[in-house]
Amino acid sequence: MSTFWSIWVSVVVLGTIYGCWWILWATRKSQTTDSETERTTGHSFDGIEEYDNPLPKWWFYLFVSTVIFSLAYLALYPGLGNFKGLLGWTQYNQWEREVELADAKYGELYAQFGNTPIVELARNEDALQMGQRLFANNCAVCHGSAGRGSVGFPNLTDDDWLYGGDPDSIVHSITKGREGVMPAKGLMPNMTATQVDQVVNYVLGYSGRARDADAAEKGAAVFAQACAACHGADGTGMQAMGAPNLTDDIWLYGSTYERIEETVLYGRHNKMPAQEDRLSADQIHILAAYVYSLSNN
What we know:
CATH architecture of the largest domain: Orthogonal Bundle
Number of strands: 4
CATH superfamily of the largest domain: Cytochrome c-like domain
CATH topology of the largest domain: Cytochrome Bc1 Complex, Chain D, domain 2
Strand order of the largest sheet: 1-2
């Protein structure tokens, strides 16, 4: 935060607290008595008169306590621009402390499964319950609570894997993350609109859905030049490159003509973040077992 905005925030915050105190002081000063009376202010509405009584003491002292607490809080914790507070508290070191406490408390629970092979662990109900919770906290936001994915996020419950569904590949995906990039128009940046139509029809032809048989036939040459290097000459994909199989009925971004055309024209860029800085090796091991179990029941 710049110096200007730091001062601005500080002035606004302190000015608000001062304003609260001033209202309290001005109201208190205007009182003519410290005890309840039958005297009225002279205001009357619909037969209801306003008594000229002081503020209730409990209300007054609560207001004073609030002002004092606010100043004490701002002295100890961040709240005045760039001033970090006397305690040096930040949300990051708070989170780190909580993680350390959680690791110390639950580390042994995760460690008991750390040396068990993933294939065997995938049949352990206790481990799967732990894995499900790890999945819900770290993976479900993209892959869905049941692991069935959505547009752009792979379904983890089938047997189609971009980078491999064996235990080692799953562990690597979770630990290091994955980043898949398909360049616009593949390896043929000068692809014309006609050629785009041809290659889209060719891809649709793998599942017998080509709109134009003649265009699909001509698209074979375009596919060989622009797409085969990653997806393979037969379109079955390459796990080493994260290139999807185009011959089945599983589609990451949709299987309609329009969605495939969009993919060819503009490319795709998908990234799964690495979890090695968030989860321990034992947690990743248990999480991998849970993911493995989704497609290997």
